[in-house]
Amino acid sequence: MQLLLAAVLAASALVTPQLSGPFPVGTFDAHLVDSTRLDPFQPSKNRELMVTISYPAKRTGTRAPWLSPGFAEVIDPIISSPAYLDIPAGTVDWAGTPRQARVDAAAVPGTWPVVLFSPGLQTPREFYAGAADDLASRGYVVVTVSHTHETVAVEFPGNRVERGLMQDGKPETMKKAIDARVADMRFVLTRLPRLHKWADTSRVGIAGHSYGGYTAGETMAHDRRFDAGINIDGAMEHTGEGGTYAPGDVVTKGLDRPFLLFGGDLGERELSHVDTSLTRTWADFWPNQRGWKRDVHLDNGAHLGFSDLQWSVPQIAQISPERRAGLIGTINPEDALKAQHDHVAAFFDLHLKHRNTTLFDRPRHPGIRLVQ
């Protein structure tokens, strides 16, 4: 008890990375209800979502919290547990950590391309705020989505928190999750013009991390409104625990639009289309992809280093070097962030803004390897 009390008293806020684009960023949350669809995890209710919109803005308003106080209270014992950071609860002042984005800041008028982002399995959208804000600072409307009842928790207006309801990783559960995610992303895009008047929905990208990377590809396979996509370190299958190999349509059919694979390491193994030790799906997807394609690898970068843990973990002194390496890898954190932000932005600049880049022709960042 004394240890926990001391940790709470010493709880410190973290410093979020500076934006790399020319624009300040505004942000707001939106509560959406799909009146045409029942929630697959709670069939007695319509599907409802929380999304965060980040956009080019004027430098007005106060900085947004990385995590709201209510959500921070729920997530702290989970993210601090031995399964993740393995630190005493209360070590980090999550709600006292401000984003670079500002709440409800006045938007810069323009026709900004749109990028929708889907988090990892059971992971809240809040843990990708850094990447979303950085891309928005480069001239995009970025929408991050929490997939209700799959993600560990979602906070709705009125301090209502809906917790995750996934009880297992069986094939049928994983299939339900990917189908819900694809429907979520399509619905959010349909609703977006009502949320942000400067969002140009004639130029739409989609990206995601882990199961969100699968979501990005599978959504493109089912909806031609999405022009280009990125899979960040995610197997594109819903095989589940003990199931037979079940790749998505994006794998078996490929796409006729641009798609980037951006992989990391798991110990001595890597996620790429030339290494099938983690998943066959990237290798199976590669010959079926008819549009522009590249396979970019972040050497010595671990799976969760593609989330906000990449910048937050190095600031938490209580995390052991071994735990840190397992979470975010051994690559220099600043190098990893710059490589991720630059490659994501360059991909969407190329395919949504039609700006040429040489970033995918030869590596220009420490740790980046062009697999093909």
TrEMBL record:
Residue span, Peptidase S9 prolyl oligopeptidase catalytic domain: 188-238
InterPro entries: AB_hydrolase_fold, Peptidase_S9_cat
UniProt cross-references to SUPFAM superfamilies, sorted A to Z: alpha/beta-Hydrolases (SSF53474)
PANTHER family: PLATELET-ACTIVATING FACTOR ACETYLHYDROLASE (PTHR10272)
Keyword tRNA-binding among record annotations: no
Signal sequence annotation: 1-20
Keywords: Hydrolase, Lipid degradation, Lipid metabolism, Signal
UniProt key word Lipid metabolism: yes
Cross-referenced Pfam families: PAF-AH_p_II, Peptidase_S9
Origin superkingdom: Bacteria
Protein name as catalogued: Lipase
